[in-house]
Amino acid sequence: MQIDKFEKLINKTKTSFIASIDKDGFPNIKAMLAPRKRNGLKEFWFSTNTSSLRVSQFRKNKNAAIYFYAKNMFAYQGLMLVGTMEVLEDQKSKDMIWQPGDTMYYPGGKTDTDYCVLKFKAKSGRYYCNFKSESFDIK
Asked: What residues form DSSP beta bridges with 87?
């Protein structure tokens, strides 16, 4: 497994994608800003609105995936991580990932009831580059 390559890919992406499961069992994908914080490839933290559809879906079904990609003139790279998503509403988690300018999304600041944290825990992944794919487990 090429952890350093995967981490470089994640570090240079400004947009990530998260996938949740709807009430009928179908995947739903949404573009998100890059994770606010991460612990290697194991854990990722995102900010979002408590009232969002994704939060509602993750509360019913924690199964999730996140995806990162980069494209240049000659190559495309993609990294999918599969695991679970937890909705965190405690103040410590909110404070941990708060950034200046977030009041644009959450006018009530760090204590806004429509502000929460999504914590993703990866179990496995799949990396694609140069017409080759590689699956791996996260330990």
From this structure: 118
CB-count exposure of residue 69 (10 Å: 0-12, 13-18, 19+): middle
pTM for the structure as a whole? 0.94
Place of tokens 């429509």: 114
State the Cα–Cα distance between residues 126 and 136, nearest whole angstrom. Answer: 6
Q: How far apart are CA 107 and CA 113, in angstroms?
A: 10
CA distance 116 to 89: 5
* Per-position pLDDT tens, the chain of length 139: 588 889 999 998 999 999 999 999 999 999 999 999 999 999 999 999 999 999 999 999 999 999 999 987 678 899 999 999 999 999 999 999 999 999 999 999 999 999 999 999 999 999 998 889 999 999 8
Decide: 25 and 12 in contact? Cβ < 8 Å: no
Amino acid letter, residue 34: A
SS3 67: strand
Distance of CA 70 to the CA centre of its chain: 16
